[in-house]
Amino acid sequence: MTLTGQHFIAGQRNATGASTFTGINPATGEALPTTFHDATSDEINQAVVAAEEAFYQLQQVDPAKLADLLESIADRIEAAGDTLIQRVMAETGLPEARCKGERGRTCNQTRIFASMARDGSWRQPRIDAADPQSKPGKPDVRTMLFGIGPVAVFGASNFPLAIGVVGTDTVCALAAGCPVIVKAHPAHPGTCEILAEIVTEAVAHCGLPAGTFSMLQSNSNESGAEFVRHPGVCAVAFTGSLRGGRALFDIACSRPRPIPFYAEMGSSNPVFLLPGALAQRSTDIAADYIKSVTMGVGQFCTNPAIVLGLESEHLESFVSAAAEGAAGYQPQTMLHPGIYQAFESGRQKIAATSGVSQVAVSQAESSGTANEAVCQIFAADFSVLDATEELEEVFGPTSTIYRCQSKDQLLKFARSLDGHLTATLHGTEEDLTEHADLVNILQHKVGRIVFNGFPTGIEVCHAMHHGGPYPAATHSFFTSIGHQSIYRFVKPVCFQGFPSSALPEALRQ
Ligand code: NAP
To answer: What would the pLDDT profile of 95-148 be if each residue is shown by its tens digit?
Structure first.
């Protein structure tokens, strides 16, 4: 397909704004050919008004049609083949295998939500039949879940497919019959355009209202804010930085009619190395640690950025093996020049912190592309961590190992934690028994606790919880990955005293 740089507003390509930007190939640092237009207020308004109209229709269509829509989207993504993959690679610097793997996950989760739309069990019907004999008479009360209304979606730069225009947010909102208005990510605008065309065609193919889906390009914080302010938007899904998420969350809460704003943000994902595990397999854990730190050039919200272990010879052999792994890492291109610059200043800030020393930095030859990140591992005494007021996420392949002198220091650190997406424990079963108090604290600090693994790589399944207390997410109850993510975009409605014939089918006797 030929990119036009335009938005898709309720089935139509359009772009009237004078302000423009281009995609950048991070591997060369050069601008890519197409010019994209920043959305105007009028265009955002058109998209939301069309979504409001579509919402009432979507709430009445046969859910099988929503399932067909999602299946058609997944089929079309696969059919887009290399056109899509090549553009993702050009805009993100991600290698082909990663792009194809992410496409597989994207289509898989889209089909999961298609089957959820079809079976309707997410509606959770609950029926309390009337009891006229009771005193006072107990009324007939029935409740089930409905879509919340138009949803605005902000995808992240690091998952251009799985958390982008057709990411979990979009597909679970559509499964619940909620129209979606996507604010495209300016780091991969061409990828967004290809995906938006796919969804627009699928909407038309399935005979659904055009306002079911819109995608607007924007490289300006102000137009991003306009999506959240628009009175027709009923919920927002955001994946990205704490700074961006918090700014938009504040806007959502300060609207005359506040709306739910579900942000998944950054995290430092502490890893605790317990003594039994270190004694048994310190070098194996170190090898997996470096794999996790460097996976996707460290550009994962689940990157294990902090490691704590009790001082011992085994911890030192872990540090040495981690140093070897980091030194051998071949520098790789980051997603965007801005992300690379933020990584460079972040790791320099860690290096300049008093008491922090470098364990290792990549020595392998550069692959010769631009914006390449090295892997850099640091170490420090627990006292440095203890004196840190706020843990700042450094997005990229870096991590710091803290040497602790006592179990009390592990517990003190755990108690001091803000919300994080994950915490990881490496241990034996005896370690777990010995550190049950640590696990108890972590349960109140993170959304997912990993035992003898690493937090990067998130399974899309029923039991997944990808979220956590603030600032990992703005609402600790909800997940943004897995089947349960649909519950961000629904609301219960209770019917009291209705005749069966007038009730939604799932609530009839
Ligand atoms: P980002 O810079 O926050 O951008 C995300 C989106 O929000 C973009 O569309 C961006 O558009 C917009 N935005 C950012 N600040 C804004 C503001 N103040 N007002 C209005 N719009 C704003 O994040 P990113 O670089 O895409 O992703 C990297 C971050 O995402 C990392 O911190 C990572 O940990 C986090 N992440 C979290 C998860 C998770 O599941 N928790 C998953 C992946 C990534 P503009 O660029 O036009 O401002």
So the answer is: 999 999 999 999 999 999 999 999 999 999 999 999 989 988 999 999 999 999
Q: Which pLDDT tens digit goes with each residue over 455-489?
A: 999 999 999 999 999 999 999 999 999 999 999 99
| H or E element at residue 238 | strand 235-239
Buried b (16+ CB within 10 A) or exposed e, 388-403: eeebebbbbbbbbbbb
Largest Cα–Cα distance in the chain?
A: 82
Number of folded domains that form the chain? 2
Q: Is 264 noted as a catalytic residue in this protein?
A: yes
Q: Are residues 280 and 261 in the same domain?
A: no
The DSSP bridge pattern shows strands 332-333 and 141-147 to be: unpaired
Q: Are 448 and 416 in contact (CB under 8 A)?
A: no
10 Å CB burial of residue 119 (0-12, 13-18, 19+) is exposed
CB 400, CB 378: distance < 8 Å: yes
Residue nearest to atom 31 of ligand 1 (CA): 241
Domain that holds residue 183: 35-265+473-507
Structure tokens at 396: 């990229």
How far is Cα 219 from Cα 19, in angstroms, rounded to an integer?
9
Of ligand 1's listed atoms, the one at least distance from the Cα of 187 is 46
Helices (H), 59-80: 63-79
Nearest Cα residue to 129 out of 143, 117, 115, 150: 143
CATH of the domain at 158: 3.40.605.10
394 lines ligand 1 (CB under 6 A): no
Residues 6+ apart with CB under 8 A from 322: 286, 289, 290, 359, 360, 377, 401
Q: Whose CA is nearest to atom 38 of ligand 1?
A: 301
Ligand 1 lined by 219 (C-beta under 6 Å): yes
Asked whether the beta carbons of 209 and 69 are under 8 A apart, the reply is no
- CA torsion, ordered 90, 95, 99, 104, to nearest 10 deg: 160
Q: Are residues 348 and 311 in the same domain?
A: yes
